[in-house]
């Protein structure tokens, strides 16, 4: 079976500054740099971000390898902690300007579109300690200064900008569930942080409209969208799934695309006494500064059921999970290394939701990927990792994306996470996601089988599906069962 994608489709991959560059010549530490300094044992094998994949030093060779596997676009992020010298004044660091100019120019020289994100979990630690990071609207204004500098410095060559990557992860990780520094559990602060990030995104968009020198430029946000599937059709499970969608998907998506938060959500937050503090002027600014384009990160679905216990009996601070619990779908397919369910059909549901409920805004898959540990076990005699599981994972997701496109959803690209195995927060290098493997001890990088396969896809924009896989999907429709269990 062959599936045609548009000839101008983005075939690419995504990483971030803090996960790839290393800390070389970086003026400020971010929250993860600092967390590693004070608690290295919190990171897998005590591997921190100091070197990462050495992109700061090897970007020319790395971009050449990306070109070799056919990428026509590449997303990374500009680090606030690298670019800005004086965080209050917003003055720039000249070495950082040189570095990011060189990266952008090298991408363009290799005929690869540079796609730039402005915040990928890397709050400057000084701002976290002094103001509480995103708890502070002063920090929102400092971020807008940083964004304006990026547009001024690089907007003549970068046409595709994104304000944030996965803002919900910042809220959940740092303020609810303790997997991002500062590891606070405070529901009211979490809700305020969510609003402040939405406000920061809108202020960056306003700065883009004012300062961007390129008429072809556009700006968006990257959201991790996880459709919430109820355990049953019982009313309690449907209500739980509805709130899960409001919190996990619609909170940031509505603010970014529609310029307002879902009324159902704000009513609930007000009823619970945790609604954010916002002025009319701030709400008006969010309303006026909506996105041009959307990035969608998708890894796994969200399976939801009613909470096990009444929310009235919870002797804890407010948490969104007072309204829903997750559950493990019987018979699910799993990436057991990561602990995530594999459910490619969700891409189709996302595509139609964007088409039907968000004005069919232009969007692309900004992250999708499969983290696998100990990939050396799949090395062949030629020293190539035979990651057929990753190829199948991509094929299945692209199959459902193509169905969404065929039914009118305005999807223009697909980016794998990640081009080169990168450092991944607390997991460090435990799980590998890249088209290109990285020996973190020698920094020798080698193209995996998936990278060689992707080159053919990117050059032709034709997805070739194995007959057994294509037949199986055509047969089962939206059923969960599949013909093969994946790693």
Provide an overview of this structure:
With 487 residues, the chain is of the alpha/beta class. It has a single domain (2-476), classed as TIM Barrel (Alpha-Beta Barrel), CATH 3.20.20. Helix content is 41%, strand content 16%. The protein has 16 helices and 21 strands. It has helices spanning 17-20, 31-38, 55-68, 80-83, 94-109, 125-131, 137-154, 167-175, 187-211, 235-257, 263-271, 280-288, 346-357, 388-406, 449-460, 467-476, and strands spanning 2-4, 10-14, 73-77, 84-86, 91-92, 113-117, 160-165, 218-224, 228-230, 293-297, 302-305, 325-326, 334-335, 340-341, 363-367, 372-373, 411-417, 431-432, 436-438, 445-447, 462-464. Strands 2-3-6-7-8-10-15-17 form an eight-stranded parallel beta barrel, surrounded by five helices. A three-stranded mixed beta sheet has the order 9-11-12, covered by helices on one side. A two-stranded antiparallel ribbon has the order 1-21. Strand 19 (436-438) and strand 20 form a beta hairpin. Helix 7 packs parallel to helix 9 (187-211) and helix 8 packs antiparallel against helix 9. Mean pLDDT is 94; it is low at 474-487.
**Class by helix and strand content?**
alpha/beta
Total number of distinct structural domains? 1
CATH class: Alpha Beta
Number of strands: 21
Q: Per the principal axes of the C-alpha atoms, what is the gross shape?
A: globular
Give, in spatial order, the strands making up the sheet with the most strands.
2-3-6-7-8-10-15-17
CATH topology annotation: TIM Barrel
Bin the helical content.
40-55%
**Mean of residue pLDDT values:** 94
Question: Number of helix segments?
Answer: 16
Largest sheet: 8 strands, parallel, barrel
Radius of gyration: 22 Å
**In percent terms, what proportion of residues is strand?**
15-25%
In CATH terms, the superfamily is: Glycosidases
Residue ranges: pLDDT <50 for 5 or more in a row? 474-487
CATH-scheme architecture: Alpha-Beta Barrel
How many angstroms does the end-to-end distance come to? 24 Å
């Amino acid at each position: 079976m062959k599936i045609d994608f548009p000839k101008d489709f983005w075939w690419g991959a995504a990483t971030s500054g803090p996960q790839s560059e290393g800390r070389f010549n970086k003026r400020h530490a971010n929250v993860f740099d600092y967390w590693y300094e004070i608690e290295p044992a919190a990171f897998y094998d005590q591997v921190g971000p100091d070197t990462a994949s050495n992109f700061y030093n090897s970007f020319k060779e790395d971009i050449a390898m990306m070109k070799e596997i056919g990428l026509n676009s590449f997303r990374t992020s500009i680090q606030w902690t690298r670019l800005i010298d004086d965080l209050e004044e917003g003055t720039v660091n000249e070495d950082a300007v040189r570095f990011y100019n060189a990266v952008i120019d090298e991408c363009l020289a290799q005929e690869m579109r540079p796609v730039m994100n402005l915040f990928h979990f890397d709050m400057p630690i000084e701002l976290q300690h002094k103001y509480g990071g995103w708890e502070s609207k002063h920090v929102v204004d400092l971020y807008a200064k940083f964004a304006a500098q990026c547009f001024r410095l690089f907007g003549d060559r970068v046409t595709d900008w994104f304000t944030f990557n996965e803002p919900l992860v910042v809220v959940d990780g740092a303020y609810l569930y303790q997997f991002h520094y500062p590891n606070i559990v405070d529901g009211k602060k979490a809700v305020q942080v969510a609003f402040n990030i939405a406000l920061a995104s809108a202020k960056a968009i306003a700065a883009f409209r004012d300062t961007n020198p390129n008429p072809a430029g556009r700006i968006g946000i990257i959201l991790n969208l996880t459709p919430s599937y109820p355990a049953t059709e019982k009313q309690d499970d449907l209500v739980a799934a509805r709130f899960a969608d409001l919190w996990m998907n619609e909170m940031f998506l509505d603010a970014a695309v529609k310029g307002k938060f879902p009324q159902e959500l704000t009513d609930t937050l007000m009823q619970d006494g945790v609604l954010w503090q916002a002025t009319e002027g701030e709400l008006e600014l969010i309303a006026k500064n909506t996105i041009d384009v959307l990035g969608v990160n998708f890894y796994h679905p969200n399976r939801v059921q009613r909470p096990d216990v009444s929310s009235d009996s919870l002797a804890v601070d407010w948490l969104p999970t007072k309204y829903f619990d997750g559950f493990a779908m019987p018979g699910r397919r799993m990436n057991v290394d990561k602990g995530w369910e594999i459910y490619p059909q969700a891409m189709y549901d996302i595509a139609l939701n964007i088409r039907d409920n968000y004005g069919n805004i232009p969007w692309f898959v900004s992250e999708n990927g499969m983290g696998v540990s100990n990939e050396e076990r799949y090395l062949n005699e030629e020293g190539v990792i035979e990651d057929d599981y990753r190829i199948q994972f991509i094929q299945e997701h692209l199959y459902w994306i193509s169905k969404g496109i065929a039914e009118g959803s305005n999807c223009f690209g697909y980016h794998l996470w990640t081009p080169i195995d990168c450092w991944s927060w607390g997991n460090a290098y435990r799980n590998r996601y890249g088209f290109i493997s990285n020996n973190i001890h020698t920094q020798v990088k080698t193209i995996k089988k998936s990278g060689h396969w992707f080159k053919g896809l990117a050059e032709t924009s034709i997805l070739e599906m194995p007959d057994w896989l294509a037949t199986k999907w055509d047969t089962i429709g939206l059923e969960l069962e599949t013909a093969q269990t994946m790693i």
